[in-house]
Structure to design on (172 residues):
């Protein structure tokens, strides 16, 4: 088979990846860079607000018994999501024991002007913030996982609640 155009550049890489000679390149967007410096005390307060406990130098939020799929809690993203000048933090934790086939859970916490952290949303899934907004300029959150139709949560002024289901920006 002869490849032409962009396919001729991609085909050799795919062949090497299929042969196990190099890692496949995944089209995954990296998280945005941190926009707020986080001190160790901020990290600890954000994890505590999300219900995590420090054990053996790792943050644990679920009761995984030590399964092979377990990944301790980590700060995935720090950004001012609603434009109030205060940071929000997305914390992730991996475990099929705790989160099923999705294998990942999230917690979204926010710091107020007084420096106190509060849990806004958590659950199984992989969070992606959308351009659409809810109350108070909070971005809608798509919570992904296995499948092709994902819940989109919207801030109603008190909590993130189900707003719609969509896949690649289209209702489903």
């Amino acid at each position: 088979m002869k490849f032409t155009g962009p396919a001729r550049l991609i085909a050799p890489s795919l062949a090497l990846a299929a042969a196990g000679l190099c890692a496949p390149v995944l089209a995954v967007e990296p998280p945005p860079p941190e926009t707020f410096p986080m001190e160790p005390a901020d990290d600890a307060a954000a994890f505590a607000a999300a219900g995590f406990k420090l054990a053996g130098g790792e943050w644990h939020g679920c009761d995984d018994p030590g399964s092979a799929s377990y990944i301790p809690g980590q700060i995935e993203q720090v950004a001012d999501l609603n434009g109030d000048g205060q940071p929000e933090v997305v914390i992730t934790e991996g475990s099929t024991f705790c989160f099923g086939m999705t294998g990942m859970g999230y917690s979204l916490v926010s710091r107020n002007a007084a420096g106190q952290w509060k849990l806004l949303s958590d659950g199984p899934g992989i969070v992606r913030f959308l351009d659409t907004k809810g109350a108070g300029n909070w971005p809608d959150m798509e919570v992904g996982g296995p499948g092709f139709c994902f819940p989109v949560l919207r801030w109603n002024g008190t909590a993130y609640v189900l707003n719609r289901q969509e896949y690649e920006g289209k209702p489903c």
The radius of gyration is 19 Å.
